[in-house]
Amino acid sequence: MRRPFAAALFIGAAAVLSAPAFSQALLERGETVPQRVVPDWSLTLGALGGIRPDYEGSDNYSFLGAPLVELRYRDRFFLSSRDGLGVTAVKLGGFTAGPVLRYRFGRDQDDNDALRGMGDVGGTVEGGGFLRWQEGGWVVVVNAAQGLNGGGHRGATVFASLGYGGRLSERWLFSLGPSITWASENYMQSFFGITPTQGARAGYAPYSPNAGVKDVGFGGTLTWRVTDQAAVTAIAEVKELLNDAADSPLVERAGNSTQAFVGLALSYRFSW
Predict the structure, then answer these.
(1) pLDDT, tens digit, 9 for 90 and up, residues 177-209
(2) DSSP readout, 47-89?
(3) SS3 call for 151
(4) CA 232 → CA 16, 81, 224, 258, distances in Å?
């Protein structure tokens, strides 16, 4: 996938993909500025700092710091802390698609007092695929993934976003747009459900959520290209938990189905 430099700032770093899973493809939106030269190989290194809820549904916020790493070969292969490991297997005009393998961090019961007694949700290796379509300033992204290992959530998610973006000036770029996430019953049970055993330990009534739309959101980025290789990106997103996710006792206890993330990413791209 041919990307402008703003897209090298991937806020869906592994730490962000833990809980909550903010903006897995926020910087996919508005990737409309062509590079002057598309190198065979590129390596982007950077760091992300931001404020996010302790867990998905929490009303308590804490600081997140994470390294950002992305290696790409043309528009065929990528290995990154946002997208995982993937290959562009199909490319037809503005449409691209392919398989992807990635890691989603779990949730620790020590992350917040509201989780004490719930036990930990293990990290998950996820396998799936991506679809991406771009026309002018518009970008549509769909990512689907299934948990593969027994120690993780063992569920499935489908994330979709519609975005628009481009240049404000020679050095300033923007992207913005809505998103929606669907989650399977196993995924919902892992992060929002409460078994009788968990309920007895943590003081909650048992809760068994169903599959369905987990959240909708709206986010944007503003990128300053300091040079052709270095950039600074400000990131903001608000998500609203819906349906059985919003009704979970873990969310109702906090009284906060609205989740937000703000952050700043710095990166430098090497190419050859």
Answers:
(1) 999 999 999 999 999 999 999 999 999 999 999
(2) EEEEEEESSTT-S-EEEEEEEEEEEEETTTEEEETTTEEEE--
(3) coil
(4) 18, 18, 5, 27
